[in-house]
Amino acid sequence: MKAGDLPPLTAAQKREIERRVRDADDRTRYLIVSGFGPRFALYYNVSDDTYAMNSPELGTLFKRRAAATAVQGLLGSGTEILRCRVDRAGQLVKGSVPRLRRPTFLRRKAPRLKAR
Predict the structure, then answer these.
(1) Residue ranges making up the domain that contains 92
(2) Which of 10, 41, 49, 75 is most buried by its number of CB atoms within 10 A?
(3) Do 93 and 87 form a contact (C-beta atoms < 8 A)?
(4) pLDDT, tens digit, 9 for 90 and up, residues 62-110
């Protein structure tokens, strides 16, 4: 069978190929993090079932947010999902990892004004 003998691609097949190319080109990844403030964060590593302290490059990079959410559900509360990026070689771009905010239970509450 020659290349000219193949039937042309259908519109659905073309859309699927375009979707897969866009997915392959997407450099967005997701990290699961347990943060204790802006200076202390634990990044979850699925393969070892451990946390890496202040080293996002040691955490598992998820291609799909749905997969990260599923793993987060197994870990319980106290974790959040961070969106980050990788370079062309697939390595984490550290500047793309957002800084963590203080957990809500550690944030200072504004003083209440007394009613007169």
Answers:
(1) 26-105
(2) 41
(3) yes
(4) 999 999 999 999 998 889 999 999 998 888 898 888 877 655 555 566 6
CB contact set of 79 (below 8 Å; sequence gap of 6+): 32, 33, 34, 44, 72
Q: Which residue has the tokens 């870990």?
A: 75
Rounded to whole angstroms, how far apart are CA atoms 2 and 47?
45
The CA distance from 48 to 59, in Å, is: 10
DSSP label at residue 2 = -
Within-domain flag for 78: yes
The tokens of 62 are what? Answer: 């998820």
Total domains, the chain: 1
